[in-house]
Amino acid sequence: MSKIYKTQGIILRNLSYSETSIILDIYSREIGLASYIVSGVRKSKSKIANVFHPMNIIELVAYRNDSKLSRIKEAGLHIRYQSLNVDVIKSTLGVFYIDLIRSSIKEKEKNESLYDHISETLQDLDRSELDLAQKPLVYSIALASYLGFELSDNYTEVNRYFDLTSGQFIDNDLRHKHIINEDISLAIHQLLRGQVVTSKERRTEVLDALMAYYRFHIEGFKTLKSLKVLRTLLS
Asked: How confident is the model over 37-64, as pLDDT tens digits?
């Protein structure tokens, strides 16, 4: 039996279905990760099609059905972005962040603190004007802590190598195959201290290291399709 509920949700994916419908992956505050169907939204006269773009934070009323797709009854924007959907750089960063989230979240149960973090991060990106090139690195590090594999800033003169297995800095154990080199490890340490990585090449190397960290800690984590475009715009 279907149950009607109202919640806030962040759209992670939008797929066309039949001639006029779409299927959405939405991470909501009350339910967590779930898939929904919206009928008639692809008609030329639809007034709410723009509501269902990935990255949008919406309010929705839906019929919950555990045995099949939930159906959205009503929906509207909860947050109206000022620049995120129109600024090319911000939009690219947002797509990367949503791509990272969709590839990382495996549990469907609700997690209000994670939802609030994702929502606040998207709004931060919408408001931001400076240091946009740092955002993919900062967001990746912050999200890891909410997913259960936080990076530890225990960097010292001895422990100068970031260990992908533990998320900590260790000494240079040559028997260990999962450590990051000294220069990139230093850059990760600087980011953890809120400092800026100024070199474009180093930012790319750090982002690659962080994606390797995600692959190590999330089973089935795949290379993000958004990375190629992100690197092109931020190079």
From this structure: 888 776 766 677 789 999 999 999 998 7
For residue range 174-222, what is the model confidence (pLDDT) as tens digits? 667 899 999 999 999 999 999 999 899 999 999 999 999 999 999 999 8
DSSP helix/strand/coil, 132: helix
Write down all domains in the chain, each with its CATH number in brackets. 3-77 (2.40.50.140), 88-234 (1.20.1440.120)
SS3 110: coil
- State pTM to two decimals: 0.91
State how beta strands 70-77 and 21-28 pair: unpaired
The pair phi, psi for residue 25, each rounded to 5°, is -100, 120
Those residues whose C-beta lies under 8 Å from the C-beta of residue 136, and which sit 6 or more positions away, are 93, 96, 97, 207, 230, 234
Instruction: Write out the two tokens for 16.
Output: 């066309």
Q: Counting beta carbons within 10 angstroms of the beta carbon of residue 88, is it exposed (0 to 12), middle (13 to 18) or buried (19 or more)?
A: exposed
